[in-house]
Every structure is written in structure tokens, then in C-alpha cells.
Specification:
The structure holds two protein chains of two kinds. By secondary structure, chain A is an alpha/beta fold. Chain A is built from four helices and five strands. Chain A has one domain: Transcription Regulator spoIIAA. In chain A, helix 3 links the parallel strand 4 and strand 5. The mean pLDDT of chain B is 86. Chains A and B meet through helix 2 and helix 3 of A and helix 2, helix 3 and helix 4 of B.
Chain lengths: 119, 147
């Protein structure tokens, strides 16, 4: 099971998504659902903390890709940090590091997401 | 040679327990943490594939057969799906090409089929045996540093 906690990032309209648990066939697109709920509230910019993700498979990866697809419609985006080495290897093996943008830490994600903000 | 045979009802809820079991057993036979993680992923993707495309009813079973031989772990996942033809290499090559295109164009595109690509990338050998009553996907994983 996966749990998504959403936090405000003070002084911005960026949200931090803290992902905890296992992203597999049982996760039922929880990540995309959380993003969709935020889109309804007018939030389009996200930083995802993946440090508490224990496992991800192709179904979980699809969930991440779907959220990106949703956000592209609104010119928004999501940047990721904190994948374990083993999970990062899966993304790399699939050649997905352009689609799923992974940064070294929160601060690097923040810089990258600011470049998406209008004005 | 040590061998484990697991018969699992064709339901996704059994897969996490099975994938973790095989990964832990592989560690007991000397596979390192990274390899055990890859083995967990391989078993997961093959079992999910078997449920999705082969044994579609919970009354049907998926068999996971693991053999440890010297430096190799052989994993065979058998479902009761009857595919008339299935060119594994062609399927994976086609999927990889499509994924490269999607990556270049920055679009999500095709939603299915990444599981077998992951298995291919993480294993040392991958093949499929088709018969009238079952499909068996066979994977070989070698310990790091072995020839």
C-alpha cells in the first residue's frame, strides 16, 4: 500500500507530495489521484519526496507517468527526489529519467520547479 | 540442486508475498542486496504478467519454480494461458523502440508492456516456452562477479 501526504511549501504555490510505502499493482494509481485532486484546487506544481518508497514496479511507474501526463495539460509539473539506488536503477533501465525527472535533493527540485512557474 | 515450487492462485494480492520470499531466499544463497532487489522485481513483473495475460481466473494457478544452480538462479513462471504465438524478443524490441520514441517526444504513450522490458534488462537470460495448455517464461539471474 502507498500513502501520499501533501504539504504546503511556505511562500509558494508548490506542494510537496510525501510518498510512503509500496507502489505496485495494489496501489490503484494513488499518486495520480492525489495530483488530480490538487489540480481541481488549482495546484499544478509539485515536488515528490520518494525517500520512504520501499518498492516500485511497472504499475507504480505508470502511476508516476500518468500524473505527469495530467499536469502537462495545465503546463504544470512534478519533480522527484529521494529514490533509493535500487529503485533509481529501475527507472534508468527503462530509460525514463527524462520523463520522470529525478534530482539529488529537495533544493534541486525546487530550483527546477521554479523554472516552470509563469512570469 | 535446491528448488522451490510455489503454486499461487491467480490474484494480484498474493504477488507481494511471493516476490519477497524469492528475493529473501536468493540472499540466503549469496545474491547481494542489489541482485535480490532485481530478483524481487523480476518475480513481481512475471507473476503480474501471468495473471494479466495467462491465468485470468482466481481458480487458476500460477506456478513459480526457482532453482539455484552454482552461481545462477533460474526462475520459471508458468500460467495456464494458451497463446498461439508469442515472439518475446520481437515484443520487447518493439516496446523498447516505442519507449525511446516516447522518451524523446516527452509523452507517456503506450501504457502496457514495460514489465517485460524491466525483466529483460535485469536478467541474464530470458525465454518463453509455449504449449497447448500453458505459457512458461524462463529467466536466469547470475550472481555478480561470476562468469
Amino acid at each position: 500500500m502507498v500513502k501520499i501526504t501533501i504539504e504546503d511549501i511556505t511562500g509558494s504555490n508548490i506542494k510537496r507530495l510525501i510518498v510512503t510505502g509500496v507502489m505496485d499493482n495494489a496501489d490503484n494509481n494513488e499518486f495520480t489521484k492525489s495530483v488530480q485532486e490538487e489540480i481541481k484546487k488549482g495546484n499544478y506544481y509539485f515536488i515528490a519526496d520518494m525517500t520512504r518508497v520501499l518498492y516500485i514496479n511497472s504499475s507504480g511507474i505508470l502511476d508516476l507517468l500518468c500524473s505527469k501526463e495530467q499536469l502537462q495539460k495545465y503546463k504544470g509539473g512534478v519533480k522527484f527526489y529521494g529514490f533509493s539506488r535500487n529503485l533509481y536503477d529501475i527507472l534508468e533501465a527503462l530509460g525514463l529519467l527524462k520523463m520522470i525527472e529525478v534530482y539529488d535533493n529537495f533544493e534541486e527540485c525546487q530550483k527546477a520547479i521554479y523554472s516552470l512557474l509563469p512570469g | 540442486m535446491p528448488e522451490i515450487i510455489i503454486d499461487m492462485p491467480a490474484n494480484f494480492k498474493y504477488v507481494p508475498g511471493v516476490r519477497v520470499l524469492v528475493a529473501r531466499v536468493s540472499q540466503a544463497f549469496g545474491f547481494n542486496d542489489q541482485e535480490a532487489c532485481q530478483i524481487e522485481t523480476i518475480v513481481d513483473e512475471l507473476c503480474n504478467n501471468a495473471i494479466e495475460h495467462g491465468s485470468r481466473e482466481e481458480s487458476q494457478m500460477v506456478r513459480i519454480n526457482c532453482k539455484i544452480e552454482n552461481e545462477d538462479l533460474e526462475i520459471v513462471v508458468i500460467d495456464s494461458g494458451t497463446r498461439k504465438s508469442f515472439d518475446l524478443e520481437k515484443t520487447i524490441a518493439g516496446k523498447l523502440k516505442l519507449m525511446e520514441q516516447e522518451e524523446q517526444e516527452g509523452r507517456v504513450g503506450e501504457r502496457r508492456g514495460r514489465g517485460l522490458v524491466i525483466v529483460k534488462k535485469m536478467s541474464d537470460h530470458l525465454s518463453v516456452d509455449l504449449s497447448d495448455q500453458k505459457t512458461a517464461i524462463r529467466v536466469r539471474k547470475r550472481k555478480a562477479g561470476s562468469l
